[in-house]
Design a protein that fits this description.
44% of the residues lie in helices and 14% in strands. It is of the alpha+beta class. It has one domain. It has a 4-stranded antiparallel sheet with strand order 1-2-8-5, sandwiched between helices. Strands 3-4 form a two-stranded antiparallel sheet. β6 (155-156) and β7 form a beta hairpin. The longest helix has 29 residues, at 87-115. It is globular. 33% of the residues are buried.
Length: 258
Amino acid sequence: MSKKTAEIKDYFLKYLDKINYKGFFGVANFYSVYNHLIDEQQEKLKKILQDQFNEFEEKGTIISLGICYDLKIIDYINQINESVIDKERWDMYGSEYKHINRLLKDISSEIALKFNGIAIPPTTETPSHEINNFTDYFLKTISHRLVAEFAGIGWRGKNELLITEKYGPALRLTSILMNMPLIQGEKMRRKCGDCRACLDVCKFLNNKHNLKDYRENCRKYILSLCLNSNVCGKCIKACINNRICKNTFINSPNSKII
């Protein structure tokens, strides 16, 4: 079990070296993740696995892969130049968002093929005009954040994103279903403390408990920005710039955070 885990991890590390990005690798228990998914995503997993589902319940695992943003890109989010939002720079963040998703899709497919797994795409590529409500996304994928939580990569922050000790929420995630036991991580305790930077920068997050679904409010706000990519990132930037452990972030282009 340890040998196979190390082999897969090493394969991912070599990929990070090749593309010169930082990243995270972890393994979660399949059954633990499944039990915490919403009903629609549980059904999606059953549909994907079909006759293999019972085997996965007994011994299955889910690999979590994360690739990090360059922190300079995060700084481009919601930049104000001469009292005007610099949307051209903000779009650079959106372009990197898509690029990292493609990298994750490529490596997860490679690993799935080489080690007999099933890759779950990093995010839906459904055009925004085909989405009528945030809940439409639920059937497109599973919660990669939840997998990463159970893999011990990070904890769920107040912005509802995965927060890592070394890189905050500045990463994208994907998952690979594995019909084999691998060395699993453990969930981390939340370490946000009294920090509320993400809440202060976003009125929807700050009022999420009073809204029917704050994510739908976020979706509509993002559309109103008229950016080239339908991503915001303001809460990510706030976390990076203000969180208590910001000085622990690693920003060396050669360091790999595994």
